[in-house]
Specification:
The chain is built from six helices and 13 strands. It is an alpha+beta fold. Helix 1 runs parallel beside helix 6. The relative contact order is 0.16.
């Protein structure tokens, strides 16, 4: 299964064409970035860990009735995924105040929210992924009203499934970022989950110690990022030694 043309390169992944036009190959890089690449490093095996963790999470979601683009893992760094028309919106689901939410609104980090808070940002690194409203999405036609509703409904389902997955291994899901795309079919378009879900895109805290097990270890110069990702994988029951 050989990859062909490089179609897209982001901060942490590359997308290649595939011999079957309705599929793509998603490649996980070792790059660690923060603040839209204003901070950058390369950390050996980070891509391998994210590939394994994302595979595990997307499989869990699919087994719980949440359709997504993941088909199968090809090797330690690559996944076969369905080709989608990506909606240029990043969806952030927050369960506990942290990060930019705390900074923007002066909310104490660690404050539990009364329910999931959904925020949207425009997927545009050059603009630093600005916060946008549902009205922005509708007016600028990034997604229709029905698509926004479907994105929100699926986001709540993903959040519920992931909270359960992580709390069972002693990890609090603080917040996470996801993306969606349109699966183009003869019977019309379908909104499904895309991209990745890993410690790069989630805030994960140890339930007892509140130790950070995610990319905040890089953002905040805490060190030990790879060890934290390995701990997440191990708790999830992923065999990282034989992959």
């Amino acid at each position: 299964m050989t990859k062909k043309e490089l179609l897209y390169e982001g901060k942490a992944k590359k997308l290649f064409s595939h011999k079957e036009k309705d599929k793509l190959i998603q490649y996980f890089k070792d790059d660690a970035t923060a603040f839209n690449k204003k901070k950058h490093d390369v950390m050996e095996n980070k891509g391998i860990l994210n590939n394994l963790i994302s595979e595990h999470i997307f499989t869990h979601l699919r087994n719980n009735g949440i359709e997504n683009h993941f088909i199968k893992r090809i090797n330690e760094r690559e996944q076969l995924v369905r080709k989608l028309e990506i909606i240029p919106i990043e969806v952030i689901i927050r369960n506990i105040a942290a990060g930019t939410l705390s900074k923007r609104l002066g909310i104490e980090e660690g404050k539990e929210l009364p329910g999931p808070l959904i925020e949207f940002t425009l997927k545009n690194d050059n603009l630093d992924d600005p916060i946008i409203s549902e009205e922005h999405i509708r007016v600028f036609e990034w997604a229709s009203v029905n698509e926004i509703k479907e994105i929100k409904n699926q986001s709540i389902k993903v959040n519920k499934a992931l909270i359960g997955l992580f709390i069972n291994v002693g990890i609090i899901l603080v917040d996470f970022k996801i993306e969606f795309g349109r699966l183009i079919t003869e019977n019309g378009n379908k909104i499904i989950l895309a991209d990745e879900i890993s410690p790069d895109s989630c805030r994960l805290w140890d339930k007892k110690s509140l130790k950070k097990l995610d990319k905040d270890r890089f953002r905040r110069n805490l060190g030990g990022l790879i060890d934290a990702y390995k701990e997440v994988a191990t708790r999830l029951g992923i065999d990282i030694k034989n992959n």
